[in-house]
Amino acid sequence: MADKRALITGIRGQDAAYLARLLLEEGCAVFGADKKSGDTTYWRLKRMGVFDDVRVVYMDMTDQANIIATLEAVRPDEIYNLAAQSFVENSFRQPLLTTDVNAAGTLRLLEAIRLTHLPARFYQASSSEMYGASREIPQTELTPFYPRSPYGVSKLFAHWITVNYRESYTIHACCGILYNHESPLRNPEFVTRKITRAAARIARGLQDELVMGNIDVRRDWGFAGDYADGIRRIMRHPVPDDYILATGESHSIREFIDEAFAAAGIDIDWEGTGASARGVERKTGRAIVRVSDEFFRPADIAIVQGDAAKARTVLGWEPRVAFRELVRLMVESDLREADEDRAQGDGTSGASRPHPR
Ligand code: NDP
Prior knowledge:
The chain is of the alpha/beta class. The protein has 11 helices and 15 strands.
């Protein structure tokens, strides 16, 4: 792999950090595309120990000329398109921005490949959110799509335009339809990390309560490191195709909360149902989890569960980290972070650190 050049868009994101490490380990030259605004600390790349090895280039998914110039400069053999406005809730507040980055951005990148005639392989980060309200559980690659958010709709366009460019221009383009995958590198605004961080901070006396949206929805959660390995396998298969990566198990958010607090040494009893549910610490009777309408989505998905049989059979891919282990490794990381915050006397708010390490 020594001569292979990989370009990863969304280099400051969770998946890019795991993928960059995998690709560097096999000797690829890794270029990370960043839109150069907001958080420029690259804390995830640093935490994975790869910051010095990733060559950062500036490329915004909303700027066609910038994308073409970047491809011409980097001349990648592989392009992993991970850049996105990836927060589903935000997509209801910023549907046009979400569409511009996720849908039109993917088309711009494909157009850049077509116009520059680069023989680069292309990977698109498709999402289980494209299935949305699908009645088929678990979903396979043949299940009809029914997205339930502007994010899901934007990802569906990106998915189909990738398939279309593969079929129209013989570009080696493939899609990974990934179910939720988490890690200690997950942004704290996402529900899993919001929970693990709150469990750790409540356990350490740095936060009083966790306020949640709908805790009865079920999700198929895997570990981001396993999914980065799946992404690489999808890209490297000689025939470009689309694959689901999922664990095949679903768990409710309530189960995730129970598991996370247990990992932080707190047992929870539940009272009430739906929007009036609350979680009480068994030992003290203190209410520490509350449900609020404020965090309910305008349209939600009751259950998400994928069937990754095709990836297992064709690519030999298997998720290794199970649900309980995933929650525990996230809580352990957040407990270490809470201990550091406590040592520094920084304990006033559950969201006090804008860019966690
Ligand atoms: P992240 O949100 O952590 O990373 C996405 C990155 O894209 C961010 O660093 C973001 O930068 C960047 N980005 C946003 N807008 C632009 C833009 N205009 N130009 C260039 N870059 C931009 O996502 P993940 O790592 O979790 O996921 C990777 C991909 O996989 C995403 O496309 C996501 O939608 C998809 N996916 C993720 C799943 C998951 O469970 N993690 C499940 C299924 C699909 P900034 O931080 O500055 O905003």
